[in-house]
Amino acid sequence: MRLPDDNGLDVLSEFVAKGIAVIVITAHGGVSDAVHAVKLGATDYLKKPIDLEELLLIVQKSENAVKVNYSLDYSRQRNNHAIQHASEGTKLLGESLSVQNVRAQIVRILQIDLLENDIAPTVMVTGEAGTGKDLAARLLHISCRQNVQVKDKRSDKPFVDID
Questions:
Q1: Considering the entire predicted model, what is its pTM?
Q2: Domain count, the chain
Q3: 3-state secondary structure labels for all residues of the chain
Q4: Is residue 159 assigned to a domain?
């Protein structure tokens, strides 16, 4: 909190603005400073003397949070990329009976009347690895976004791929 050349909270804001995770460690300050630091974006706040085991846990928690945020950013970028390509005409390729059945199922799902609470049906896509489940699910999601009759409160939400 009391740095020779600056205030710790001012430095904190600079680091947070650059996307750097910050753990505030100080011998000075109280609960209100801790609350203020966390509101400004600090990952955590420790008062000296420091328990090294607690510090290690906080650093690990911070690392995990950074990994989760990175994964979320990656998923958002992947989703935006898929939406962009779907609007450019991404489609299921092939004329086999299986591919025709998947296309027909997507059309049937889009034709299902909305339930009383204005929510399109929940769909689970299953199959073996590499069969295009992700593509089929993305196409269904994008088709629901584009289909005026199937607009519901989830239509404008991002597609979330869970492996």
A1: 0.48
A2: 2
A3: CECCCCEHHHHHHHHHHCCCCCEEEECCCCHHHHHHHHHCCCCEEEECCCCHHHHHHHHHHHHHHHHHHHHHHHHHHHHHHHHHHHHCCCCCCCCCHHHHHHHHHHHHHHHCCCCCCCCCCCCCCCCCCCCCHHHHHHHHHHHHHHCHHHCCCCCCCCCCCCC
A4: no
CATH of the domain at 37: 3.40.50.2300
Full pLDDT tens readout for the chain, 163 residues: 777 888 788 888 888 888 888 898 888 778 888 888 899 999 898 988 999 999 999 999 989 988 888 888 887 787 677 666 655 555 677 888 888 888 888 877 777 755 555 566 778 888 888 888 888 887 877 777 666 555 556 666 777 777 6
Residue 26 structure tokens: 């100080």
Residue 22 located in a structural domain: yes
Residues 58 and 112 occupy one common structural domain:
no
Query: CA-CA distance, 54 to 56, in Å (whole number)?
Result: 5
